[in-house]
Amino acid sequence: MSAEATNPVSAAEAATTDVAVRRRGRARIDLRRLGRAALLGATAGPAPRDRLPDAIGHVAEAHRAHHPEADLTVLGRAYVLAESSHRGQFRKSGEAYITHPLAVTLILAELGAETTTLTASLLHDTVEDTEVTLDQVRREFGDEVAYLVDGVTKVEKIDYGAAAEPETFRKMLVATGSDVRVMSIKLADRLHNMRTLGVMRPEKQARIAKVTRDVLIPLAERLGVQALKTELEDLVFSILHPEEYETTRALIADHPGAATALDGVADRVTAVLREADVDAEVLVRPRHFVSVHRVRLKRGELRGCDFGRLLVLVAEDADCYAVLGELHTCFTPVISEFKDFIAAPKFNLYQSLHTAIAAPDGAVAEVLIRTHRMHKVAEAGVVALGNPHVGQEPDGAAAPGTGPDDGERVDPTRPGWLSRLLDWQQSAPDPDTFWTSLRADLAEDDEITVFRADGSAPGTISLPAGASCVDAAYAQHGDAAHACLGARVNGRLAPLSTVLGDGDTVQLLLAQDTVSGPSPEWLDHARTPAARIAITGWLRAHPESSAPPAAPRDPRPQVSVPTDRRGGAELHAEPVDGEPPAAARPAGCCTPVPPDEITGFRVRGGSVTVHRARCSAVDAMRGLGREPVTVRWGDTPQGRVTLVAESFGRPGLLADLTEAIAGFGAAVVSANVEPPSEQRVRHTYTLHLPDAAGLGALMRAMRDVPGVYDVSRARHSGDLG
Question: Which residues carry out catalysis?
Answer without folding.
Answer: 128-129
